[in-house]
């Protein structure tokens, strides 16, 4: 079982941080392969709560090597403050490895992210404002700055100059902002070089060697399947590939080395930012899910939009990721409803469909077709095995499993590490 991927099966915030942390003690490497500090992963260990944005959640497990892969975009100031925050709390971060090929988020990326959103007005994406999209845009445009550039002042200066040539025109002429000076950016970036140098490594070589030696490598996705720039609800997506294929391009480990792909699936659905969401609830049930589930963003503090479980989306996630397992999280949040609606298909212009429509306009018109499952009122947070769950909670899990197309191998019944029912081992 050398390499496995753990990713979000919905629109993010499914509980990936908790799931990664849970496995952290039994794996050798935990790798972030895409995204940046747009992610917000909460991990609860005993009475301690950690909010991680850029660092892989495995950083909290001693003996597990955390890796930031080439597919990640790194804001160096955020990285250093996250590291020092953990150090102050006694977490040893010295083992961190960062790919020299990862791209940097610079102050002009954050600025462009914010002004673009402002100018989009009511058509905005609702980004996290962390410079993610503009940094990936520069990467694809071949004017990005990579981590390794921090260690060659002359190359760094040339690259920042090339990137700003165009961007300053846009900032000044289109957005009426002050142009950014190359020297100022270079000086700021060089200021991070010494602190980061010791972490930078050929992570692709290290990870492939690790797999060769039979070490266990866990790839931790940020965001989720429906936020994927190719397979998500474009344009209301992030600018990277959280889906399983992204683990390969974002790390340099090939698909034949990956043996398991675990989809983290919330027992209901949430979304942050703009975009279609067929099962969204704008009523008291939606408010109740938000309150009971604590559905407020870890990164931006925004209220998350809440809705019932959508099996069409879960099936889609199984397909585009080749999921082998689900980790069903937050089942405890559904305790107390007399009956629980589950979306089993959509109606679009009077027609019933069972798969995610490939046309954006159709998806915007989709209304959910619900089946109603009987609820339960017993507290399930102390359940340790599947048989400890009330019959109707067992029925809910079984129904989700059947509709979604992959076995539910673990169930979350609370935020803590030990509030988990493990049905099949992931390793
Ligand atoms: P991530 O972005 O996928 O890592 O998820 P977030 O950390 O943004 O949001 C998930 C939230 O749910 C966090 O506050 C977790 O502590 C919490 N959580 C995770 N699993 C469970 C669970 O099974 N039950 C409950 N009640 N909370 C959970
Ligand atoms: P985790 O890893 C939920 C959303 C933003 C916005 C869109 C694009 O905690 O699950 P971006 O800043 O990435 O350009 O914003 O993607 N988004 C997330 N939503 N969880 C996340 O991460 C997210 N990261 C980005 O709200 O709609
Ligand atoms: Mg999150």
TrEMBL record:
Residues reported in the UniProt entry to bind IMP: 13-16, 38-41, 128, 142, 223, 238, 302
Presence of the UniProt keyword Ligase in the record: yes
A GO term, aspect molecular function: magnesium ion binding
Keywords for the protein's UniProt record, in alphabetical order: Cytoplasm, GTP-binding, Ligase, Magnesium, Metal-binding, Nucleotide-binding, Purine biosynthesis
Cofactor descriptive note: Binds 1 Mg(2+) ion per subunit.
Top-level EC class: ligase
EC number, UniProt record: 6.3.4.4
Domain of life: Bacteria
GO biological process, one term: IMP metabolic process
Active site (catalytic residues): 13, 41, 139
Cofactor: Mg(2+)
Binding site for Mg(2+): 13, 40
Annotated metabolic or biological route of this protein: Purine metabolism; AMP biosynthesis via de novo pathway; AMP from IMP: step 1/2
SUPFAM superfamilies: P-loop containing nucleoside triphosphate hydrolases (SSF52540)
Subcellular location: Cytoplasm
Any GO CC annotation of this UniProt entry: cytoplasm
Transferase is among the record's keywords: no
Reactions mediated catalytically: IMP + L-aspartate + GTP = N(6)-(1,2-dicarboxyethyl)-AMP + GDP + phosphate + 2 H(+)
Gene3D superfamilies: Adenylosuccinate Synthetase, subunit A, domain 1, Adenylosuccinate Synthetase, subunit A, domain 2, Adenylosuccinate Synthetase, subunit A, domain 3
Assembly mode: Homodimer.
Role description: Plays an important role in the de novo pathway of purine nucleotide biosynthesis. Catalyzes the first committed step in the biosynthesis of AMP from IMP.
Database matches in PANTHER family: ADENYLOSUCCINATE SYNTHETASE
Sequence similarity: Belongs to the adenylosuccinate synthetase family.
NCBIfam families: PRK01117.1, purA
Protein name, per record: Adenylosuccinate synthetase
Originating organism: Streptomyces abyssalis
Gene that this sequence comes from: purA
């Amino acid at each position: 079982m050398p390499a496995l991927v753990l990713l979000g099966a919905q629109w993010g915030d499914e509980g990936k941080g908790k799931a990664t942390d849970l496995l952290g003690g039994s794996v050798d490497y935990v790798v972030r392969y895409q995204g940046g500090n747009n992610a917000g992963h909460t991990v609860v260990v005993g009475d301690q709560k950690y909010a991680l944005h850029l660092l892989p959640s495995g950083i909290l497990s001693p003996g597990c090597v955390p890796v930031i892969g080439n597919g990640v975009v790194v804001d160096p100031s955020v990285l250093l403050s996250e590291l020092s925050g953990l150090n102050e709390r006694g977490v040893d971060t010295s083992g961190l490895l960062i790919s020299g090929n990862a791209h940097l988020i610079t102050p002009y990326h954050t600025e462009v992210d914010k002004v673009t959103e402002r100018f989009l007005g009511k058509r905005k994406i609702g980004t996290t404002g962390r410079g993610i999209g503009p940094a990936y845009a520069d990467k694809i445009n071949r004017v990005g700055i990579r981590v390794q550039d921090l260690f060659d002042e002359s190359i760094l200066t040339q690259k920042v100059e090339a990137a700003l040539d165009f961007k300053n025109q846009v900032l000044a002429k289109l957005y009426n902002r002050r142009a950014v000076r190359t020297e100022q950016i270079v000086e700021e970036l060089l200021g991070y070089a010494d602190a980061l140098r010791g972490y930078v490594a050929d992570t692709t070589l290290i990870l492939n060697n690790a797999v060769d030696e039979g070490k266990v490598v866990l790839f931790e996705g940020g965001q989720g399947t429906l936020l994927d720039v190719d397979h998500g609800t474009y344009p209301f997506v992030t600018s990277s590939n959280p889906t399983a294929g992204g683990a390969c391009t974002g790390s340099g480990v090939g698909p034949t080395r990956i043996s398991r792909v675990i989809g983290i699936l919330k027992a209901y659905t949430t979304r942050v930012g703009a975009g279609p969401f067929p099962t969204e609830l704008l009523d008291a049930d939606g408010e109740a899910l938000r309150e009971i589930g604590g559905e407020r963003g870890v990164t931006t503090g925004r209220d998350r939009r809440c809705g019932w479980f959508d099996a069409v989306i879960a099936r889609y996630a199984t397909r585009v990721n080749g999921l082998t397992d689900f980790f069903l999280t937050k089942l405890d949040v559904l305790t107390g409803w007399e009956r629980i609606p589950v979306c089993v298909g959509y109606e679009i212009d009077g027609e019933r469909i069972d798969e995610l429509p490939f046309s954006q306009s159709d998806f915007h018109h989709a209304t959910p077709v619900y089946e109603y499952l009987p609820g339960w009122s017993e507290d399930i947070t102390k359940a340790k095995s599947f048989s400890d769950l009330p019959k109707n909670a067992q029925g809910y899990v079984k129904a989700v499993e059947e509709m979604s197309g992959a076995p539910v191998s673990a169930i979350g019944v609370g935020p803590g590490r030990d509030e988990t029912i493990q049905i099949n081992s992931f390793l």
